[in-house]
Design a protein that fits this description.
Blueprint lengths: L8 E4 L5 H12 L3 E5 L13 H12 L4 E4 L6 H15 L4 E4 L14 H29 L2 E6 L2 H5 L5 H21 L4 E9 L11 H6 L6 H8 L8 E5 L2 E5 L15 H13 L11 H14 L3
Parallel strand pairs: 1-2, 1-4, 2-3, 4-5, 5-6, 6-7
Antiparallel strand pairs: 7-8
The structure holds 1,4-dihydronicotinamide adenine dinucleotide.
C-alpha cells in the first residue's frame, strides 16, 4: 500500500464513533499513532464521557496499533492545548489533524433559537480553530503538517433546517482557503472533506435504504489522501458510498459595466451574462477578483 503513515502522529477529533472512528482506525492501520479525541456526548452535544474514545483506542491497540484517548471538548481551548501537549509528550510531534467533531441542532431558521445557532458555530468553527491553532506552531516548526476540515454539502449548497450547521460548515471552507495559503511555505497543507455517510447524525435525515448504501468507511479514503505526504492543498473533496468528487468556489468571467446612473438597470439586464459559467476560474487567492476587475476597467478605458 503506497499511502503510509509510519512515524506520523495524528489527532482525530470526534473519533469515538461515526466517520471519526473510521478515520482513526484507517490512520492507525497504516502506521500512524493516533489521538482519539471525543467528548462522548449525544448528537446534539449533550453529556460527555471518555469511554467512546477509549473503546476506539482499545480496538486500535488490539490490532497492534498505537493510540491514546482524550475526552476534551473542542470548544475548550485550554483542554485542546493539553491534548496536543499530551501527544507531544508521548510521541514528540503532530503531523496530521482531522477536524471532524461536530453536532446538530436542526430547525428551520424561523424556529431556531440563537443559542442553538451559537453552539453549532462554536463546536464546528471554534472547535476546528482551537485544534488548528494548537497544532499550527508545531507544524510550522516541523515544516510539515496535514490538516483536514470537515465541511458538508449542507454548507456548500444548503439544506432545509440547517442554517446554523450550514453556516458553520461553509466557515470551515473559508478557514481552509486562508490557512492553505498561509501554511504553504511551512509545508502545511489544508484541505476539506465533504462526506456523506450513514452515522447517528444522518439517521433521521435519510431513508434506511439510502443509509445502507452509505458506509462511513467509504468516505475515509478521501481523508487518507488529504492526510498523506502527497496531499493536495486547498481542495474540497466530496465523498460518499465509494464515489469522490471535488467542489470548487469559482468566479465567472463577468462583464464590465462601468459606473453610470443606470448601472443598476444595465446590471439587471446583463445578469445572465454575469452569471454565465463559460470560462469561469478558481482564483488562487481572494485578491484575484480585484485584479481581474481592475484589469477589465483599464481595458474599457483604453489602457
Ligand atoms: P457522529 O455524531 O457519529 O460523530 C461526531 C462525533 O463528534 C461524535 O462522536 C461526538 O461525540 C463528537 N463531538 C461532538 N461534539 C464534540 C466536542 N465538542 N468535542 C469533541 N468531540 C465532539 O457524526 P458523523 O456523521 O460521524 O460526523 C462526523 C463529521 O462529519 C461532523 O463534523 C459532521 O458534521 C460531518 N458530516 C457528516 C455527514 C454525514 O453524512 N454523516 C455529512 C456532512 C458532514
Amino acid at each position: 500500500m503506497g499511502i503510509d503513515f509510519k512515524g506520523r502522529v495524528a489527532i482525530v477529533t470526534g473519533a469515538g464513533g461515526g466517520l471519526g472512528r473510521q478515520h482513526a482506525l484507517a490512520l492507525a492501520a497504516r502506521g500512524a499513532k493516533v489521538v482519539i479525541n471525543d467528548l462522548g456526548g449525544d448528537v446534539h452535544g449533550v453529556g460527555g464521557s471518555v469511554s467512546a474514545a477509549q473503546k476506539v483506542v482499545d480496538e486500535i491497540r488490539a490490532a497492534g496499533g498505537e493510540a491514546m484517548a482524550n475526552g476534551a471538548s473542542v470548544t475548550d481551548f485550554d483542554a485542546v492545548q493539553k491534548m496536543v501537549q499530551q501527544a507531544m509528550d508521548a510521541w514528540g510531534r503532530v503531523d496530521i489533524l482531522v477536524n471532524n467533531a461536530g453536532i446538530l441542532r436542526d430547525k428551520s431558521f424561523a424556529k431556531m433559537d440563537l443559542a442553538d445557532f451559537k453552539l453549532v458555530m462554536d463546536v464546528h468553527v471554534m472547535g476546528a480553530v482551537h485544534c488548528t491553532k494548537a497544532v499550527w506552531p508545531i507544524m510550522q516548526a516541523q515544516q510539515y503538517g496535514r490538516i483536514v476540515m470537515t465541511t458538508s454539502s449542507s454548507g456548500l449548497y444548503g439544506n432545509f433546517g440547517q442554517a446554523n450547521y450550514g453556516a458553520a460548515k461553509m466557515a470551515l471552507a473559508g478557514l481552509m482557503q486562508t490557512l492553505s495559503i498561509e501554511g504553504e511555505k511551512y509545508g502545511i497543507r489544508v484541505n476539506s472533506l465533504a462526506p456523506t455517510a450513514a452515522t447517528r447524525m444522518t439517521e433521521g435525515l435519510m431513508p434506511q435504504a439510502v443509509l445502507d448504501a452509505l458506509q462511513p468507511q467509504a468516505v475515509t479514503p478521501a481523508m487518507l489522501v488529504m492526510a498523506s505526504e502527497d496531499a493536495p492543498n486547498r481542495t474540497i473533496l466530496c465523498a460518499g458510498a465509494g464515489s469522490f468528487e471535488a467542489a470548487h468556489i469559482t468566479l465567472t468571467q463577468g462583464v464590465h459595466l462601468g459606473l453610470t446612473p443606470d448601472t443598476p438597470e444595465r446590471l439587471a439586464a446583463a445578469l445572465a451574462q454575469v452569471c454565465d459559467r463559460s470560462g469561469e476560474s478558481v482564483p488562487m487567492a481572494g485578491s484575484e477578483q480585484g485584479t481581474l476587475e481592475v484589469a477589465k476597467a483599464m481595458k474599457a478605458h483604453g489602457h
